[in-house]
Amino acid sequence: MDLLKGINKCVQKGFEITYDIVNQFENGYGDQVLAGNMLNFTYTFYIFKKEEILWSHSVDSLEDGFLLALDWLKKNRYTKMVSWTYR
Q1: What are phi and psi of 81, to 5 degrees?
Q2: How many Cα atoms occupy the beta-carbon half-sphere of 53 within 13 Å?
Q3: What is the largest CA-CA distance in the chain?
Q4: How crowded is residue 68: how many other Cβ atoms within 10 Å of its Cβ?
Q5: How far is Cα 12 from Cα 79, in angstroms, rounded to an integer?
Q6: CB < 8 Å & 24+ apart, contacts of 67-73
Q7: N or C: less crowded end of the chain, CB within 10 Å?
Q8: CA dist., res. 64 & res. 80, Å (int)
């Protein structure tokens, strides 16, 4: 099963996977961004269930964030749909 189908199954089970785009330059890391040591934009992912934050993590790419979120749900047995393959 591909990544989007895995996300869709999570949503059907009542989980919400969201993310914020963080501008690291505006967040006070301009020197590191200009030096090439940090990406200008990173992403903070969240998993919610009934408005409760179950998990959050910062990553450098959208794909990595969704994969980590799905892995977290699988490892913590929040879903019974652990048989999908998305890599």
Answers
A1: -100, 55
A2: 8
A3: 45
A4: 15
A5: 11
A6: 67/3, 69/10, 69/17, 69/45, 70/3, 70/6, 70/7, 70/10, 72/47, 73/10, 73/15, 73/47
A7: C
A8: 22
Dump the DSSP string for 8-63.
HHHHHTTEEEEEEEEETIIIIIHHHHHTTSS-SEEEEEEEEETTEEEEEEEESSHH
Amino acid at 10: C
pLDDT tier at 26, thresholds 50, 70, 90: very high
Q: Is the pLDDT of residue 9 over 50?
A: yes
